[in-house]
Amino acid sequence: MNFLCSWSGGKDSCYAFYKATKLGFKPAVLLNVMNEFGDRSRSHGIPKPVLEAQAEALELPIHFFSSTWTDYEVKYIENLQRIVKDYPISHAVFGDIDIESHRAWEEKVSAAANLEAVLPLWQGNRKQLVLELVEAGIEAVIVSCNQELGPDYLGRTITAELVEELENKGIDACGENGEFHTLVVNAPFFKHKVDVEITEKAVSSNYNFAVMRLKNKEVSL
Q: What Enzyme Commission number(s) apply to this enzyme (predicted)?
């Protein structure tokens, strides 16, 4: 029942991790896909040192590999097959909620490495899942968002009040349509808080990004 967690650094992967442990699964390793330069995550644009700090707070190893979107699937399978040789795992945990094509892909790549895909959040109500993770003590902050939200939302912590505010603006509570991405900085199962401070806000490709300081070292999202 040992598992690999597909780890974005954001709220959904973290809550899926937590829910998997409550189902009796035991975490063994985190997996994150970096961009082709290897300096930040492909999905959320989170710098490698921040992801390493999260892994350290979880007291788990984290496996990175770099990829373009073009060769993403091939490299993902290759790395899963490599990881199963290094860790005694039988399952792969993912944080997707209700997008069928995502689930199909995750089951496909997991099967290629003789792993069973587990989606603990699957078919949950999006708003309710966010409220549950807040109630569970998972502290996540918005670190990137579209122009509909704007740069003032960067650095805001996900709370029940913020969920209502987002929904009143017509924004999905989970950000499942790409409206925003989050970074988990603390949780009851972290051994300590990931000390991140936002020092600047930047715009790239019509999207707002945070510039953060981690343990006296400045890193840019």
A: 6.3.1.14
